[in-house]
Amino acid sequence: MEQAYQRALNFVHNMPAFSSVPGVFRIKRLLQYLGNPQEQLKFVHIAGTNGKGSTAAMCAAAFQEAGYKTGLYISPFIIDFRERFQIDGEMISKHEFVELYIQVRDAYERITAEGLECNEYDFITALAFLYFRRNHCDIVCLEVGLGGDADATNIIPPPEAAVITKISYDHMKVLGNTIQQIAKAKAGIIKHGSPCICYPDQTEDVLEVIMQTCATVQSPLILPNMYQTEILRCDENGTIFLYGGREYHLKLLGKHQIDNAITAIETLRNLKTIQLTEQQIANGIAKTTFPARMEILQHDPIVVLDGAHNPNGFVALAKSIRMFQCSPKIGVCGVLKDKSYQQELALLDGVLDHLVVTNVDSPRGLAAEELKNVAEGNHFQVSLSDYPQQAYQQAIKLAGKQGGVFIFGSLFLAADLRKYLQKEKL
The Mur ligase C-terminal domain covers which part of the protein (predicted)? Predict the structure, then answer.
């Protein structure tokens, strides 16, 4: 089975990552050959720049708490490709992945013969729909891969709710150079008759686009009220907050997760047909965990892993690092060359004491030497290690027992070091 799984995975990874023409017409044809499994499922559809994964995980945890068989489709994965496809918190088995891969490959070969250029994301999204239908999921929390309107996930019927998380600048080559263009692409998941729940702290330009879209397609818009939120505790041990007078507990670290949580709460309160109790929602929020989201991997010194890789993510990262009492604070960073890394590192000026830069295992990775030159313009010391594991070991020595190590900059780096640290614990 392991060999069959690896062959299937290699086939998928050798497909084009993107297609020359955006749109859902390829997956539409692919799904027709597969019996349109998406038409037999209910979804919560989640788009945005930051917070999609955390919000999806909170919603999924609440549905599980309420006894619903719950699918979760996320992008990207951190350690194992199968993380993308989960039911009730468990990844798809290698055996089932291979079985469904064979079905999708047959449909893929048929549309290829028709001249349609199917990409990897089309393929795995179709596989996900088959997986969730085959296992009779009551609800699927469906995270958008990129954008919204042209994303393969947008082939679904009107969902139980469309959720728009924090929108900021990212993937401008695909989505557009203005925040309005980016917002318009992401608002493409809003559909007639389905409520739209919008993250509470959007810019006016973004909110205007979302309001216009909701009005056009006749979707009720729900905006969580930040002013009904009172933080009782927010530190490295977790968060306790009040929302509308009700107390909620969060394992996910950082004040930005409170806004993600109240977005999830309002989503779960305003579904079209599914109902949850307030206690089920609170219990689900309290049980939610998510890898590489200010994830504490060890103590003495404390080691924190975060997937921050765009400016808005770095704003949240800086605020979260400040809440830790450890000293000194040492960063480990590697980035992709198409990111706004100069702007991002400037946000950590005055937050870190020392930054160790390293290379990222990706063709898109920025050379560590170039990253070091950019980083040296800030008020923290900078050093370089060519390999992530070496960078981590250097950071541990610099931190000592009283300090903290914060790993960020790229999900490739997060995956690399998370695997390494998990092996160290064995």
Answer: 293-410
Q: How far apart are CA 285 and CA 66, in angstroms?
A: 12
Structural domain span for residue 51: 2-287
**Which residue reads 């995975």 in tokens?**
9
Within 13 A of 113's CA, how many CA atoms are on the CB side?
7
Integer-rounded Cα radius of gyration of the chain: 21
- On whether the CB atoms of residues 61 and 49 are closer than 8 A, the answer is no
Q: Which of 285, 314, 72, 48 is nearest to 187 (CA)?
A: 48
Instruction: Tell me how far CA of residue 168 lies from CA of 45, 47, 178, 305, 400, in angstroms.
Output: 19, 12, 10, 22, 36
Q: How far apart are CA 233 and CA 222, in angstroms?
A: 26
Q: Take residue 156 and report the two structure tokens written for it.
A: 């679904």
- Residue 59 pLDDT grade (very low, low, confident, very high; cuts 50, 70, 90): very high
Per-residue three-class SS string for 374-416: HHCCCCCEEEECCCHHHHHHHHHHHHCCCCEEEEECCHHHHHH
Cis before 328 (ω within 30): yes
CATH number for the domain that contains residue 376? 3.90.190.20
Ranges of beta strands (E only) in 35-99 are: 43-47, 70-73, 85-87, 90-91
pLDDT band with cut points at 50, 70 and 90 for residue 91: very high
> Per the structure, how many domains does the chain have?
2
Are 202 and 280 members of one domain?
yes
Give percent of the chain above pLDDT 90: 79
Phi, psi of 38 (to 5 degrees): -65, -25
Same-domain check for residues 64 and 112: yes
Residues 137 and 267 in one domain: yes
- pTM exceeding 0.85: yes
pLDDT for the residue numbered 293: 86
DSSP letters spanning 312-352:
HHHHHHHHHHHT---SSEEEEE--BTTS-HHHHHHTTTTT-
Task: With respect to residue 220, please indicate whether it lies within any of the assigned structural domains.
Answer: yes
- 391: Cβ–Cβ under 8 A, 6 or more apart, which residues? 332, 334, 356, 357, 358, 385
Residue 15 lies in a domain: yes
Sign of CA dihedral 83, 87, 88, 94: negative
| Tokens encoding 138 | 């009551």
In a domain, 425, yes or no: no
Instruction: Give me the mean pLDDT over the 5-22 stretch.
Output: 90
Q: Which of these three, 262, 287, 312, is where a domain ends? A: 287
Residue 140 lies in a domain: yes
Q: Amino acid identity, residue 36?
A: N
Q: Are residues 299 and 278 part of one domain? A: no
Q: Summarize the chain as % helix, strand, coil (round to 5).
A: 45, 20, 35
